[in-house]
Amino acid sequence: MKSLHSIAYFLIILVLGAIVLKEGSFIFVPLIWGVFFAFALNPLSNWFEKRRFPRGLAIFTAILIVTLIAGAIFYTLLNQMIGLIRDIPEIGQNVEEKMSRYYDELRFLLGDGILDPDYKTDLSSIFISEGINQTLFSTGKSVTLIGIIPLYTFLLLYYKDFFNEFLVRFSSRNQETVLHWVTDSGNVIQSYLVGMIRVTGIVAVLAGIFFYLMGIKYFILFAAFIAIMNLIPYVGVFVSSVFVILYVFLTTDSLFYPFITFITLWGIQLFENNIITPIVVGSKVRVNALAVILAILAGGWLWGISGMVLFIPLVGVLKITLERNPSLSSFGYLLGDDVPVTEASENFWKVIQRKLNSKKN
């Protein structure tokens, strides 16, 4: 009976927690981003403080440097995005011409009475207008949330000693355990963010060089799009590649260019997953692929694109938390990627085989 009550309490807490996270996403999403950026900018802020900068000025300078770099990148991408939007009528006309040509070829192969002649002109306008409208709406909402993140980051860094003292007082009996947990969690978040920024830059450079050599007009925008979407494992790469390949298909006259784009993006993804990320990011977030996929789905359902990115290091922090608790350490192991040694299972089957042989004898 107690076990049923425990399961019921757990499910109630899980459902209520999900409702609170989903309904409070406007508060929690920028706050969590602020926490992550505070961990990432803490070394730079400390560097300025060691050079006798006041803490407030050190934090402001660190945030200003990052903001200027991000602003320059955003300005460049915004100019390219405006140029792409201006080219939409031309792209739409190209789509209609391609669809008309392919439609005529299908009619020639299948016969005049099979395909409807009024079908060929409506898909291009629907596809382009709907895709652009959804993208712009999502981007505007994200920019609104981003505006408050620097404020959270500044306050969290400014009051970091205050939060440390709170943890010390809160964990008067288990100070060492709690402080170790905070240190390990901070290392996970910091390593993940810094590593993924480096990976994003490397992927952007590789994709940008390829798009430039291909003669793609907005190669910087598409390279950044590929690199940023790469932050969402499995899903982001697929979505971004589809859009880029489709753009190449609509703006070129040969199927060779979309095909070589697909091969190159696939090769960059393999290179990033198997070489770049293991070297740059390392094994700080040691979470198995199944847990990552579930984290992406749960994060996307609760917080959208931000959740798909944030939930991966959060699962790493959850894993560390579970491993610190002896009664929940098995769940921490379930989230990890430590493959059990097969020797134990082989010995088990050897024992079973010996018993069967002894019975036969």
Question: What's the SSE blueprint?
Answer:
Elements: H1 2-23, H2 25-50, H3 55-86, H4 88-110, H5 123-146, H6 149-158, H7 160-170, H8 175-214, H9 219-229, H10 235-251, H11 256-280, H12 289-324, H13 329-335, H14 342-360
Helix pairs in contact: 2-3, 2-6, 2-8, 2-12, 3-6, 4-5, 8-9, 8-11, 8-12, 9-10, 10-11, 12-13
Question: In short, what is this structure?
Answer:
With 361 residues, this protein is an all-alpha fold. It has helices spanning 2-23, 25-50, 55-86, 88-110, 123-146, 149-158, 160-170, 175-214, 219-229, 235-251, 256-280, 289-324, 329-335, 342-360.
Describe the structure.
Helices cover 84% and strands 0% of the residues. It has 361 residues and is mainly alpha-helical. Among the domains are: 191-282; 285-344, no CATH class. Helix 2 (25-50) packs across helix 12 (289-324) and helix 3 (55-86) packs antiparallel against helix 6. Mean pLDDT is 76; it is low at 117-133.
Descriptive labels:
single chain; 0% strand; 361 residues; globular; mainly alpha; 14 helices
Q: Please identify the structural class as seen in this structure.
A: mainly alpha
The total of beta strands comes to: 0
- Spatial separation of the terminal alpha carbons: 48 Å
Using the alpha-carbon principal axes, give the shape. Answer: globular
- Unreliable spans are 117-133
